[in-house]
Amino acid sequence: MEERRMIGPTKFEEYSEKYKEFLLMTRRDGIIEVRLHTDGGPYKHNWEAHTAWSHAWSDIGRDPENEVMIISGTGDKWVIGDPEVWNTKFMDWPKQKKLEQYHESLRLLENLIFCIDIPTIGAVNGPGTHCELATLCDITICTEDADFFDPHYLGGTPPGDGMLLTLQNMIGFKKAAYYAYTGKNINGQTALDLGIVSEVLPREQLLPRAWELAEMIMQAPRSTRHLSHSIISRPWKQALVSDQGFQLAHQMYDMAIDEEGVLERLKKMQGRLIGKDVQ
Q: Which PANTHER family match (predicted)?
């Protein structure tokens, strides 16, 4: 009988190298730290990284050597938005690229939740959009100057790519609607008061505290860690299955029929968006 060749998980040395342009990874005693970055500094949004994240979550989740994951940013910003990514109107994207964008946007969050079976800690290291990557984690901590906001509606686009979804499930539909329509910032202390984060810390204490929490989590037996994460992350799985595809389809349909385009609208609304890092 012919021996079957088993396909195993990708090794840390391989995938940490593969994604190093977008994610800097370190691992110690089963704890993997993943930092968003651009050229070693704060992450500036781009579509290549947007695609890479979903693949990275899959590789990280399939590696049995990973026991707790920390997601953070680099420097003093979580994410720097770049409106220039919309230099070509979405309406003018090729049909295949639109379809790919839909699937990649779904997988970005789905793979984070469905492919990773270990406890997760989000450490928001400063202001910036797309904090849902951190708020979807089991524990979320942030700096005092962090802000949480969804800029889509202010930019003339339905809020459907995950930011509003996470706010709806954390702070309630009424409060989430207010922050979606106004684009108002939720600072670190307000995020703590609303239940979005569990701790607010000075920036220099953020990552050490994330590691302290991870090391505490590591004290429990492996099965306890994995199955506790399964229980804790289940509400997010239910929310993604129920609403993510619905919300994203609405956003992308509106973008596909938008003749003006996001970039032109953002330029006109620049005064209202001062201080906002928008994608």
A: ENOYL-COA HYDRATASE, IP11341P-RELATED
What is the residue-level pLDDT of the chain in tens, covering all 279 positions? 556 666 789 999 999 999 999 999 999 999 999 999 999 999 999 999 999 999 999 999 999 999 999 999 999 999 988 888 888 999 999 999 999 999 999 999 999 999 999 999 999 999 988 889 999 999 999 999 998 888 889 888 999 999 999 999 999 999 999 999 998 999 999 999 999 999 999 999 999 999 999 999 999 999 999 999 999 999 999 999 999 999 999 999 999 999 988 878 777 766 554 445 544
Residue 69 burial by Cβ neighbours in a 10 Å radius (0-12, 13-18, 19+) = buried
pTM over 0.85: yes
- The burial class, CB within 10 Å (0-12 / 13-18 / 19+), for 186 is buried
Place of tokens 């590591």: 218
Q: Buried (b) or exposed (e) across 123-135, using 16+ Cβ within 10 A?
A: bbbbbbbbbbbbb
132 in active site: yes
Identify whether the C-beta of residue 195 lies closer than 8 Å to the C-beta of residue 175. no
Angle at 264 between CA 106 and CA 167, to 5 degrees: 35
One of 33, 67, 110, 132 is an active-site residue; which one? Answer: 132
Cβ-contact 10, 47 below 8 angstroms: no
